Every structure is written in C-alpha cells, then in structure tokens.
Amino acid sequence: MCRWLAYSGSPVRLDDLLFKPKNSLVVQSQHSKMGATTVNGDGFGVGWYGALETPGIYRSTEPAWNDRNLRELSALASSRRVFAHIRASTGSAVQQTNCHPFRHGRWLWMHNGVLSGFPEMKRDLAFAVDPALFHEIEGSTDSEMLFFLALTFGLLTDAPTAVARAVGLVEETGRRHGIEHPVQMTVAASDGDTTWAFRYSSEGRSRSLFHSTDVSTLRAQYPDNPVLHDLSEDARLVVSEPLGDLHGAWREVPESSCLIVRGDQEEMRAFSPAAP
Amino acid sequence: MCRWLAYSGSPVRLDDLLFKPKNSLVVQSQHSKMGATTVNGDGFGVGWYGALETPGIYRSTEPAWNDRNLRELSALASSRRVFAHIRASTGSAVQQTNCHPFRHGRWLWMHNGVLSGFPEMKRDLAFAVDPALFHEIEGSTDSEMLFFLALTFGLLTDAPTAVARAVGLVEETGRRHGIEHPVQMTVAASDGDTTWAFRYSSEGRSRSLFHSTDVSTLRAQYPDNPVLHDLSEDARLVVSEPLGDLHGAWREVPESSCLIVRGDQEEMRAFSPAAP
Amino acid sequence: MCRWLAYSGSPVRLDDLLFKPKNSLVVQSQHSKMGATTVNGDGFGVGWYGALETPGIYRSTEPAWNDRNLRELSALASSRRVFAHIRASTGSAVQQTNCHPFRHGRWLWMHNGVLSGFPEMKRDLAFAVDPALFHEIEGSTDSEMLFFLALTFGLLTDAPTAVARAVGLVEETGRRHGIEHPVQMTVAASDGDTTWAFRYSSEGRSRSLFHSTDVSTLRAQYPDNPVLHDLSEDARLVVSEPLGDLHGAWREVPESSCLIVRGDQEEMRAFSPAAP
Amino acid sequence: MCRWLAYSGSPVRLDDLLFKPKNSLVVQSQHSKMGATTVNGDGFGVGWYGALETPGIYRSTEPAWNDRNLRELSALASSRRVFAHIRASTGSAVQQTNCHPFRHGRWLWMHNGVLSGFPEMKRDLAFAVDPALFHEIEGSTDSEMLFFLALTFGLLTDAPTAVARAVGLVEETGRRHGIEHPVQMTVAASDGDTTWAFRYSSEGRSRSLFHSTDVSTLRAQYPDNPVLHDLSEDARLVVSEPLGDLHGAWREVPESSCLIVRGDQEEMRAFSPAAP
Questions:
Q1: ipTM for this model
Q2: How far is CA C49 from CA B56, C8, C77, C106, in A?
C-alpha cells in the first residue's frame, strides 16, 4: 500500500509539504502510523503544476527518506498544486514507471490500495482501455491501469462518473474471476484546477483518508503557528493520514465518498461504482 | 539497438566472456564497431545456467562498463551456457524489466533490433499473446513482446516454427498499420540445452550476427593463445559482433537464417516468417 | 545502525541464509526486532568466499527487500563463508562505497553501530591510517575508517590486538574532542579461514550480538527440522539478532567480548581497548 | 574526462541550455566531439541559483541522456546562473557524491580533467585541506579535492589567487611523488554573482574551453534565430565545447587563462600556479 497527499492553495515550497510537518510524508515513508504497511520505501513521486500546461513529475525508486535530489528540488520549487506519493509495492516491480503520480496531458493520478487478483484480471482490464491510449501504459501496476480505465470512461470530462465506471468495470471483472473484494482504493486526480479524491473499497473497509479543515478556523485556534499564517484561505490538503496532531485540523473523508476541491470550495459526494 | 552474445560449452567464468576479450561486450557497451548505435549504455543483463532448473539473471539499468557488481559476480560465477546483452533503448524506459535476457521457466530470450511502429501495433500484439501468459509481461519493450508471442506459438516445443509464426504475426500486424518494415532482429533463445539464433529483418538488411568456428581449428592456428586451450571442443559463441580480431575465428550468420547449436553440433537453416 | 550475519561451515546457498529464515536478514531490513532502528533500508551488501583468493562482494544502495538481483545471485551462489549486512545510515551518503562488507585483499569487515562525533574526529582518524593504505578508502563512513585503522594496527597478523588498538585510538581521539562515548560497535572480520566478532561500546551498552550453539545439539532437539540436517557439524552463525525462534539455538555474545570462530572451534575472549 | 557549461544572464529554462542546442550537453554525453572521451556517461549534475541563498544541485549517476527526472526538472526550473556537468570517470566510483558541481555554501565548482597520480598524492592533499573543512569532503574524486584546496587557500575572497595556490600545491606535491604533469583542468567556480573559469595544465596542453561572444553581435548576424532573441545582453556561456555551429559565436579561452564573467563584463587574465 502507499501514502499520499494532495495540496492546493497559495504557492508553497515543496519541502514545506514534504519534509517539514511532524508526521510528513517523508516521515511516513519509514514509519506510517495508519498505513497497511509501516514502511513505504518502494519509490515515491511528486507532481507539481508550474508555468507550463503540463505538470512536472519527479519519480524515483529510492526510498523518499534517502533521496537527496528530492530535498534539493523541493527547496527550490513552489507550486499552487502538488501531488506526492510514497509507495509500498503490492508485488509489481520497483521502477520509475510504477511510481505515482501518473500523468496524462494535464492530468495527474495517484492511488493507495490494491486491485486484488490483478494478475488474473490484468488482460481483461487492459483490453477495456481505449485502444488510442493503450500504448501510453508504461508500467505494470494496478494503479496505472485504473487510471487508464478512468481516462477511457471520460475522466477528462466527468471525473466522478468516469471513476465510478472504472471501478464498476474492475468489480464486474473481478466477480467473473471469482475475486471477492476486487477494489481497495483511495485515489486523487487533478486537471490542475480541481482535485477529486475518492475513498472506496469493495468490502467497505477502505484505507484511511483525511482532508484539512479551513485554514482560518485553525489560525484562530493556533495564533502562534507560523505555518498556518503563510497559507492562503483556500489552501486545502487531502492526505492518507494527518501530517501532525493539530486537533481539529483534519476530518476523515467518509467511506464511499468523493471529495471535490476547487479553490476554497469543497464538496463531498457519495461515491458508488457504476455499470461500465 | 543492442549487442549480445550467447555462449555454450565447457564451464567458463563469466568475466572471461564479458570483460577479457579485446572487443568484449563491455567494451562494445561504450564503443560498438558494428552496431546501429556506438553506445549501448541503457542497461544490460546476463543470464546463466547453474545448478538449478531455472537460469539466473542479473540485470541492471547502469551502463555495463560501470557496474561493479557485474565484475564481482562474473569473477565468481561459471556456467556452461551464458547469455549476455547490452542495451541501447529505442524508446522504452530504462528499467530492469526492460533489460534482456527475458526468462520464462527454463528459457532465456534476448533481442537486438526493433519492431518498427511498436506503439501502434502494441495492443494488437498484446492481444495475440496467450491469455495464460499475459500477466507475466513485466516490461514495456517490443523485445519482450516478441518473446511472449514466440511462447504463444510454441517456442517450448518447436522454436524455429514458433519464432517464424511470431514474426509472421508482427509483419501481418505491421502491414495492417501501414508499416513498411516491421521486423528488424537478431534473436537468441535457449532452453538450457540448445541455443537458437535468428537473423532476420523485413527489409532484408539485418543487424550483424556471427558465430565462432570450431575451437580445434583455431587452436591449431594459434598454438600460443591460452584462452583457446581452456575451451572444450564443443565451445560455441554466437555474437552480434566479433569479440576480437582472430582471423578465421568468426563466420557471419547469413540473412534470414536460424542457427541451432546443440553441444558441438551446429545446424544452419533458412528462416522465413510463417502465417501465425 | 545496521544488522549483519556471519556464516561459516559447509557450503550453503546464499538465499538459505538471507531469505529463508523466519526472521531473515531481509525480513529484518524492514522490521528489525532488536535493532536501534526498525528499518534498515539504506543499502546492503553480501561478501562470500568462492574459488578465488579474493572474496566476492555484492553491494547495492537499494533496500535488500527490493533487490531482484540479490534473489537471483543468492539462489545460484554457494559458499563456506558468508558475510551479509543491511544498512541504516547514521548520516553518511547512501552509496555502494558506503555499503558493508568492506574488503581488503582476502579480508572482509562489517560493522553495526556508530563512531559518535565522527565528523569532528574524521581528520585525526584519517591521519592515523597507514599512508600506504590511505588511498584505498573509497567511502565516507565511520565503519570503513575503523576497518582501515584496524588494518593499520595489524589486523592481518593479530586481529584482536589490532581492533583493540583501533578502538583505543578512537576513544583517545574522541576524548580529545570532548566526546563522551565515542565507540558503539559490533564488528565482524574474516580472512576467509577464521571469523572474529567483537561486541563493545564505550558506554558498556552495546548493540545486540548472538552466536549459534552447536548444530548437533540442535539437531537432537529438533529431529524434524530439515534445515539443521543440511548443515555440517562445524556450521556457525554470528548474528545481530536471532534469525528465528528456535529455543536454545542462540547465545548472546557478552559485552566487551571477542568471539573467534575457526572451523567448529569457538573461543570467547574478553575485549578491551588498548593504547594505540 | 568530462564536459561542462556555465551560464549567466537573464533567466533561462534549464532545458533550453541542456537539451535544445544542436550539440547540447546531453548530446555530448553520448557523442562529445572535442572531449578526451566521446562518452560522458558516468553521471551528471546541474547546479542553479534560485530564490534561496544556497544554489540547488541535482546530481545523478545515470547517463544524462537517460534521466527522465532531468527532463522534468529542467522544463520547470529557470535560473539566472546555471552550472551543468557530464562526467566520464577517470577511475573513482560512479556515485552522487562524485558528481559535479560540488557545493560549499553559496559556491559551486566543477572540473574537467584529471590530477594525474591522484592516488599517490591523495593523502598529502587531504591533509593540506583546512581542518575545519575536512569533514565536508563527501566523495573520492580529485575534482572535489581541488575544490577544497581552493577553499582552503581563500576561494571565497580571491578566487584566482586561491586557485593558483591550490594548483601550485598540487604541482609541488606531484613533483615530490615523481609525477611529470600533475594538473589537467578546466574549472568553473561561482559565488552566484561572478563566474571564474580556468584553463590550465602542467604540460601546457589543456582541455578545450570556449566562451560565447556578446549576444547583440550574434543577434545582428542571425536575425532569424529565436533563441538569441530571448537572451539578455549580458547572457554569457562558458563551455567545454561549442553547443552548435553558429560561426562567430564562440571564442577559445587561451591556455593558462582565467576568464571572469560578471554581468556583461568579461575579463581575461593570465593564470599561472602560485606557491601555496
């Protein structure tokens, strides 16, 4: 399994997100508190939107805690929208093309969880991917396959529906292969303007997912915390697990939900798989 | 493109094959004389048959000339049958799962060349792979796909026919996609007892391929060469380019041929694609 | 800190040592039970004596649990004497030249622990290394420096005295720099025939160290355990922490001791630093 | 040996420097035209000054032509002052700590060439380094040692004199060890405001070094070249070999010279070693 965070708001230095919090993602890479695995050392990745249409991605097979280039890069890069992910492989190879976030044009995608029985389902899922997209699949993970299925089902125009159909397809395929609970996921996707975060599992016991409460409330509670004062009103974080123990700072995303973050607007919707 | 060698005969230390010849494979990784590219620095791999049913493989994304572990390993490992490959990527990612040789059970496979138009053909080719084998595809190269097609068409029972049908399928698929010359290849395959080496290209201008002449002739010509005296009578090498300039040591494998090496027996057959 | 094992006895396949035990070194790389750190993911190394004078070493900056080449290599290599080490850096860079075991001619050396205040002491210690050996120092760790000091003080002819003098020099140097407890170590060294294992710390609270009891006793107690039956009478293991929970299989090496293993002979000596 | 470039001027995207020129540094990493080695595939590094006091460095052991992260990073980062270096090792390990540029506080340093007889001289040179700096030496190269000697002799206050004394020390040390031509170098150093470039060798046959002529002249000659129009008047490049074949764009730096670039001011001085 894995851990991830999705930030949007005023430009932040990447290292403020990745290294400085008490329970930062880099800390979690060695000692996750709420993850299915405590060690998430099978590579990592960061995606950030900058001056170009296409977001940049930096992905490495090293454990995040060891990567010196990540420290350098994240001290000099700032962004209004950052995806970061630390990986604990559920079996597929540790290689850059299996590191999250995955990218398609302006879109980023990352996943914590697993498609159970993926080896059995892989061929069926691969052939459900839009033929025009097929050759873009570079790695061998269930996570990237789920991304390409979502793209196939219209991620670019209606993200919640596309993910619902992708999940529906995986569940239907899983059932055909006798897999009881095919999907376990928290997923984040973004087009650079909006972030969609999904929490869902076939068995209804999904991996943890939290989002930050609004910054002004926190600021009032913690008048002395300088980090909070640097953030804009619309700053929002969605995370696998809280980055520290600021009480009231984090709210759990409910089971079977989709959280949509656009500017300072958050919308929580119910999420359920749809017929593909 | 790439360079490779396939050895069979009395046990040799791997470094005698990889490092010691004047134009060794490791030398070729920086300065190939006959390759389509002079630098073959996009990873490498070695496969060798030892005490186990399954051959071992050591594959790395570093240039072969830099890999200290390869020097260590190859000084201590000996084998009666060795495959070695240095890679120059034609576009797919530099990662271990894209390094040759590829393995399936007791079989090894390596390839120099390219399937032109592979991105366009990839989905069709993947669909033609035996569904029971599909999930074993770990990388993203044309070379591994060709291996899985050959496995699908019966590599384990009749290698020349299986490769002919695999090549036939790629050419047929290529034609459907408007690709003039889909296949460019020299390929080596082995089950641990026999080596099959193929030289073929759709355009009839295949990458170079050579095989060694028999050792006793060479020994008579070069009575003072100690390397030759350590080799058994049945020692045979098939190589992308000669490992040195011993005159009379190397014979070109003709265009559209399949060379079969079993013990000290060599058989040269014509090779042409077959209907899949 | 780190974890290590030193094996001597009848030839074993490396994977029998590294992967198969219940609490194998590779398991410990993610979840050490007794180490100063639970995760030992900052590279690893294996050294093994084979047909050559010089032992082979395979060292990698990847976490041991991820390294596919280690699985391949260790399934095909057997040895009568194996050193293996998983690293948790105490600050120096994660690079092959900082991975243990270190080698000098026929000798191997590995270390768990730390020289406290090493940055302050480094120049003085480096200056004390035999000038003829100085340029052989390739990495930047305290562990390698300790090895070169031991070499300087006669490791090749009298290992216990040489290590005592090396430790004595570090403590003396540390005191000059105001460091309270300069040395924390368990160390293993071998010349290919004998293994010396040291457990010592300036503060008298050394990292854990165990050695196996004799195999015939264990075999009598566990008549059904196949692993034990494959081992020769003289098989011995020295380990940072037990590889499993076979009661009676492991004995703690006492504080301030040197254990000498030669064939099936074990000798336990008191160890204390000596004037350099 | 190696190849490098040093840019100063209006902010440029790093990929405009590294990837887009016809004979870009990344092209040179596979096919250098004027280098002592054609392949410079033993790692690379980029240093760039951004919003922080300290410049960022991104260094990797992969060949520059393969590093996907370099493409990502260099498309999103811009800087007024960039150092970039591709490495061909002259023997020391391929590891990040041996990749250039090296950094000390606000300073960057990179080197093409070799200190001949470095293994013999290494201890003497190391002990000439300021004891307060000694522990900062992280790698094992002659290039980093030369940097620390220059720092020792006052690089921060008078760069040309400090480098002259460092070179003087190496030559004196080399003579003591019977080395005929100890120093072969082109070096670039910067404090973020000024760039110093040195071309010198003990034998008077130094590696190639060029600097760009002023942009306005070029712009007049090549009115249609868009790259030139994006650059400010004060844009300056110093390079191991020209990045393309724009006639009149490049001037050779003479033997035994120091070129000083500050804003649009260039000063060429004679350089000769000084007594340390």
A1: 0.91
A2: 19, 10, 10, 9
Cα(C253)–Cα(D152) distance, rounded to whole angstroms? 46
**Chain D residues 39-58 with CB within 8 Å of chain B:** 39, 41-42
**C81 and chain B: CB distance < 8 Å anywhere?**
no
The count of CB pairs under 8 A between chains B and D is 36
User: Looking at chain A, which residue has its C-alpha nearest residue B140?
Assistant: A138
Nearest CA distance, B104 vs chain C (angstrom): 14
A265 - beta bridge partners?
A262
Give alpha helix (H) positions in chain C.
14-18, 25-31, 68-76, 118-128, 142-152, 159-176, 215-221, 226-230
Among D57, D127, D135, D137, pick the best mutation site for testing chain C contact (most C Cβ within 10 A).
D135
Q: What's the pTM?
A: 0.94
- pLDDT tens-digit map of B58-117: 999 999 998 999 999 999 999 999 999 999 887 789 999 999 999 999 999 999 999 999
Taking CB atoms and an 8 Å cutoff, what residues of chain D touch C126? 126, 134
Maximum Cα–Cα distance for chain A, whole Å?
56
CB contact under 8 A, B94 and D61: no
C-alpha span between D49 and D191 (Å, rounded): 10
Question: From the list D59, D60, D77, which residue is nearest A76 (CB)?
Answer: D77
CB burial string A88-102: b at 16+ within 10 A, e below: bbbebbbbbbbbbbb
Task: State the Cα–Cα distance between residues C172 and C150, nearest whole angstrom.
Answer: 15
Cα A45 from Cα A2, distance rounded (Å): 11
- Going residue by residue through chain C (276 aa), what tens digit of pLDDT does each one get? 689 999 999 998 999 889 888 888 888 888 888 877 788 888 999 999 998 999 999 999 999 898 999 999 999 999 999 999 999 887 789 999 999 999 999 999 999 999 999 999 999 999 999 999 999 999 999 999 999 999 999 999 999 999 999 999 999 999 999 999 999 999 999 999 999 999 999 999 999 999 988 787 777 776 777 766 778 888 999 999 888 777 778 899 999 999 999 988 999 999 999 998
Q: In the numeric block, which tokens belong to residue B81?
A: 């049958």
Q: Tell me if chain C has a CB within 8 Å of the CB of D178.
A: no
Tell me whether residue C238 is exposed, middle or buried, using C-beta atoms within 10 angstroms of its C-beta: 0 to 12, 13 to 18, 19 or more. Answer: buried
Distance, CA of A89 to chain centre: 15
In chain D, what residues touch A77 (CB-CB under 8 Å)? 76-77
Q: Tell me, yes or no, if A126 comes closer than 8 A to chain B by beta carbon.
A: yes
Proportion of chain C in helix, strand, coil states, percent, rounded to 5: 30, 30, 40
**CA distances (Å), origin D120, targets C11, C134, D111, D152, D178:** 40, 9, 20, 21, 10
Radius of gyration of chain B (CA): 18
DSSP per residue over B111-173, as a string? EEEEETTHHHHHHHHHHHS-HHHHTT--S--HHHHHHHHHHHTTTTT-HHHHHHHHHHHHHHH
